[in-house]
Amino acid sequence: MLKGPGIPPNREATDRVQPRPIDVPAARIYRILAVATALAAYLLVLLGGLVRISGAGLACPDWPLCHGRAIPPLEGRVLIEYAHRLVAAAVSALVVATALAAFRVRRASPAARGVALLVLALVAVQIVLGGMTVRLRLTPALVATHLGVAMLFLAGLLVQAVVALRASAAPPAAPAFRRLALLAAAATYVMILIGGYVGSSAAALACPDLPMCRGSVLLPPDWPAHLHMLHRGWALVVGLLVVATAAGASRTGLRAVTGTAHLAAALVLAQIALGALNVASRLAPLVQGAHLGVAAALFAALVVLNALATPLGAPADIRRRAGARRDALPTIAGGSVDDPADALPWGGAHAAALRSVLATARDYLALMKPRIIVLLLITTFTTMIVAAPHHLALGTLLLTLLGGTLAAGSANAFNMYVDRDIDAVMRRTCLRPVPSGRLRPAQALAFGAATGLLSIVVMAWGVNLTAAALSTAGILFYVGVYTLWLKRTTPQNIVIGGAAGAIPPLVGWAAATGQIGLPAVVLFAIVFLWTPPHFWALALGKADDYRAAGVPMLPVVRGDGETRWQIFVYSLVLSAATLLLYVPLHALGAVYLLAAALLDAAFIALAWAVLNRRRRAEMALFGYSIVYLALLFAAMVVDRLVA
User: Which of 276, 310, 344 is the endpoint of a domain?
Assistant: First the structure.
């Protein structure tokens, strides 16, 4: 399971829009909707906590209906769960409305479109998880995952609200402070995930006393006690990070940043006190609710803090400046006041050594291209749910995703090793770790081999041999057939090589069932046919790069007009392929058919706009194609859960 050539290496040069004067009524509507959606999402998180605390999670044992009815008897726990679902539906509608408003102001606020698309993807994932939580009977891991995605969804909406409210560029905080604030937010997110798992398992009162566990300094031998104490210890780590962030905020000279950081410090102290009160009160419902509410508020404050401390500008410009700052960092001996390691108390040689380790780790992570892997994992995860919605073991799911990540990372690392010469020529790839000189070619080659071997071990030992064979074949096809042969010899490189990016559904189906069914072949075909219009939409604007590097992409060899025509033809064939799962296979039902029809109609409309050379239609199709694939596979899961 790996990156297909249809998924571009990065998107550093895709957003070139410069801010323009904004339509005042449109901006006002966008601000109102963005703030209202963020507040409604926070209310939804609180309602979700109430559902768990009251034991109403299965008051509606089916989904999306409740006791087989659109409007069930509104009494007792059913009322609580039904209210949660209604608010979730209202929030989803607000998200769509905000996204439409964001597209109206995208020229003046380039970040608005990207954030809106991210939020739309998150709400789709959250809807699927909500259905799975009911269908699979509230397993602790699934409840924690549902909470984790809810927090990410809330974070996206908060960033969107900050983007909407910041009408002009504000001076950013120092990089050291921004990274410390980001670390505090990430640690808080992990704390919430651990807390969600503790609350939904038998670990909530595994240690009924304070500060020890069952009166002993040593941990009891059972797993619930270990999990409970992990949550306590991690909460203290979060407290220290948030207090350190608040102390550093005063030196930024930014009033909004300082106020938000101080609010976060007050919230983390309140959260620790509520955690202790949770134990002392034996999980009194009111205390549990306050504990969750303050945790969500703390995370929200840290997300807003990070958004306020980050420079406002076009995403591509921010990334370009970040790359320049990274390459301009002095050597270990020199040090840098802008590095996050310098914010640590010991400083000096220790901070310099930590800086070197973090930079190297970041470069190895870049070899794997993690942003690209996410889309591959979405197709794998959703395929596994479609293949075995009620018989999928959590361990199998997690090991498949881990093995897929390693396989994709291996293929991408090999790709960077082979393509280091042309990467150095192309503007959007010249800052990659190998062509920029931050990693030696031999290091990329060794990393690719190590992650590839590890992926085979994980798949063969933890999943099954069929999935392992498919995953390994994907690596070999991508590296041997696409990268070493097709990419530099034929304009059909993307078409044939697209088979590599289409392997994840096959791997997912084999992992869930032990074999490859006919629906899995159709899923393979869908991703295969999706790849050319997705990638060529981007390649239309990058023809000069490919021409300079000597890569025979279709726009370079056949020209702009032929590329646009083929994008439209492939879009029609792709749309037809998506319907095969309904007729004649009957693998999916009416819910999927409706979603696929709507998504396909929008895809074809954008492809028609590209064919007719509408302004910025290429980038609109490129961006939509990513959302399209994620939503299409999410619709499959919803259909299977409803059926």
Answer: 310
Same domain, 382 and 303: no
Tokens of 442: 């031999």
Domain end marker among 310, 334, 351:
310
Does residue 282 come out as left (phi exceeding 0), alpha (psi in the -120 to 50 range) or beta? left
Contacts of 248 (CB under 8 A, 6+ apart): 176, 177, 180, 261, 343
- Cα(88)–Cα(442) distance, integer angstroms: 50
Q: Is residue 303 part of a domain?
A: yes
One-letter amino acid of 300: A
Q: Give SS3 for 582.
A: coil
Query: Shortest CA distance to 265 belongs to which of 247, 292, 253?
Result: 247
Which pLDDT tens digit goes with each residue over 595-639? Answer: 999 999 999 999 999 999 887 888 889 888 988 998 899 888 888
Is-contact 133 57, C-beta < 8 A? Answer: yes
- 392 located within any domain: yes
Q: Is the dihedral of CA 614, 620, 625, 631 positive or negative?
A: negative
Q: How far apart are CA 31 and CA 449, in angstroms?
A: 49
Give yes or no: residues 377 and 441 share one domain: yes
In the chain, how many domains are there? 2
Task: Tell me whether residue 43 is in a domain.
Answer: no
Q: Is 421 in the same domain as 509?
A: yes
Can you give the CATH number for the domain in which 535 is found? 1.10.600
- Are residues 503 and 566 in contact, defined by beta-carbon separation less than 8 angstroms? no
Range of the domain at 559: 362-642
pLDDT digits (tens, 9 = 90+) for 534-570: 988 988 887 777 787 788 888 888 888 899 999 999 9
Q: Average pLDDT for residues 246-265, to the nearest whole number?
A: 85
262 phi and psi, to 5 degrees? -65, -35
**396 and 512 both lie in a single domain:** yes
Looking at 250-347, list the stretches that DSSP marks H as alpha helix, in order from N- to C-terminal side: 255-280, 285-309, 315-327
| Biggest CA-to-CA distance, the chain | 76
Residues 370, 302 share a domain: no
Q: Are 504 and 495 in contact (CB under 8 A)?
A: no
**CA–CA distance, 107 with 105 (Å, rounded to integer):** 6
Report which residue type is found at 643: A
Residues in the chain, how many?
643
Helix and strand totals (H; E) in the chain: 23, 0
- In contact, 213 and 228? CB cutoff 8 Å: yes
Q: Are residues 280 and 419 in the same domain?
A: no
Give the residue from 129, 166, 165, 43 showing the smallest Cα distance to 94: 43
